[in-house]
């Protein structure tokens, strides 16, 4: 018969061996996330902290379950991601993943960061301490909120605070990449909207621009793509979080949302489209070089069409009549025959 002492001894031995496997560096998801780092850095985001975090955990790919697309399994330091984000020929995250997939990955990394690195005794203003403080602020809001009480006791306030943070930051990164898609589409696919003369293409070169306020106001499609809502430091994340299948009620505070956006994972997200556009014009990597080449070719193609239209319009215009030279009144569209009917004093 196995005694209680023997059972405890076996469990302690297992825990010791498990800790050795972690310390020996076996939990390191760096090679699975190399393209993720490159994707984030391609638009000027900071990956220093994410790299540090991923080096402490294991990354694997699996089919989604009936309850979750992805899962952070904190007991074994394992980040399970959906198969759809994996390259077909390699065991790593794809570079060109969709916005919602990036949302999912960042969401789970927030959970991992809070469980593995975020601590109260971390250095002040470090990414670890900032994440801890942000979640603690949300936790305090939930703890004193009667809507979260059951029989007089709070139910899972820390876990709910963790979910609120993960949903918000994942949604913020989602919106950044959605904003990126709109900027690229406007500049490359819709160059005809802003290239009005052949010289415009040379003047702009490969610089990314944003539509003018007047263009957004007068063009319903531009208004849809570049509306003021949806990309702002205070409202760029996902304001609705879920725990056990239900929305989490939370009296949102603007400074907490701002801290989530600015500090969690230390990605240094652009606060608006102007900052994002500036990032695109400042970074230098193979991906952005390819996009700049696409941009140059698109603008050149539109400029050539504009030049042809202008030339055709000039060739079709009637030649001036030397016997009836234009006058100031002619240019205003007045019939020259009317001149003879005007009184002499006019």
Fold and architecture overview:
- About 5% of the residues have low confidence.
- Helix 5 runs antiparallel to helix 10 and helix 6 packs parallel to helix 12.
- The chain has 13 helices and 7 strands.
- It has 346 residues and is mainly alpha-helical.
- It has one domain.
- 51% of the residues lie in helices and 6% in strands.
- The strands form 3 sheets. It has a 3-stranded mixed beta sheet, covered by helices on one side. A two-stranded antiparallel ribbon has the order 4-5.
- It is elongated, with a radius of gyration of 30 Å.
- Strand 4 and strand 5 form a beta hairpin.
Summarize the structure.
The protein has 346 residues and is mainly α.
Biggest sheet strand line-up: 1-3-2
Oligomer: single chain
SS-based class: mainly alpha
The residue ranges in which pLDDT falls below 50 over 5 or more consecutive positions are 16-25, 328-335
Q: What's the end-to-end separation, in Å?
A: 125 Å
What's the shape? Answer: elongated
Query: Tally the helices: what do you get?
Result: 13
| Major sheet description | 3 strands, mixed
Order of helices and strands: HHHEEEHHEEHHHHEEHHHH
Strand content: 5-15%
Q: Could you tell me the radius of gyration in angstroms?
A: 30 Å
What's the domain count? 1
The number of strands is 7
* Helix content, binned percent: 40-55%
């Amino acid at each position: 018969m196995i005694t209680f002492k023997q059972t405890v001894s076996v469990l302690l031995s297992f825990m010791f061996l498990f800790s050795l496997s972690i310390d020996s560096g076996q939990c390191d998801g760096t090679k699975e996330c190399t393209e993720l780092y490159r994707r984030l850095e391609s638009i000027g985001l900071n990956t220093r902290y994410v790299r540090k975090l991923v080096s402490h955990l294991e990354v694997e790919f699996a089919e989604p379950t009936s309850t979750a697309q992805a899962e952070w399994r904190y007991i074994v330091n394992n980040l399970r991601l959906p198969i759809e984000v994996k390259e077909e020929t390699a065991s790593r995250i794809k570079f060109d993943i969709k916005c919602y997939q990036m949302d999912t990955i960042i969401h789970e990394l927030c959970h991992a960061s809070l469980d593995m690195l975020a601590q109260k005794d971390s250095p002040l203003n470090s990414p670890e301490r900032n994440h801890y403080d942000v979640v603690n602020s949300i936790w305090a809001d939930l703890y004193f909120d009667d809507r979260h009480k059951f029989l007089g006791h709070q139910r899972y306030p820390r876990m709910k605070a963790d979910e609120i943070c993960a949903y918000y930051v994942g949604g913020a990164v989602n919106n950044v990449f959605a904003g990126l898609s709109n900027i690229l589409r406007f500049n490359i696919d819709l160059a005809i909207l802003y290239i009005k003369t052949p010289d415009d293409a040379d003047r702009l070169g490969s610089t990314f621009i944003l539509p003018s306020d007047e263009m957004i106001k007068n063009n319903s499609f531009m208004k849809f793509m570049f509306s003021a809502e949806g990309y702002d430091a205070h409202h760029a994340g996902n304001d609705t979080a879920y725990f056990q299948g239900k929305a989490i009620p939370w009296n949102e505070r603007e400074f907490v949302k701002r801290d989530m956006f600015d500090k969690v994972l230390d990605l240094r997200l652009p606060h608006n489209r102007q900052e994002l556009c500036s990032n695109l014009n400042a970074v230098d990597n193979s991906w952005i070089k390819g996009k700049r080449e696409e941009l140059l070719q698109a603008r050149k193609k539109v400029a050539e069409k504009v030049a042809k239209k202008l030339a055709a319009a000039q060739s079709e215009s009637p030649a001036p009549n030397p016997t009836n030279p234009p006058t100031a009144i002619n240019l205003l569209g007045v019939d020259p025959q009317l001149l003879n009917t005007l009184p002499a004093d006019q």
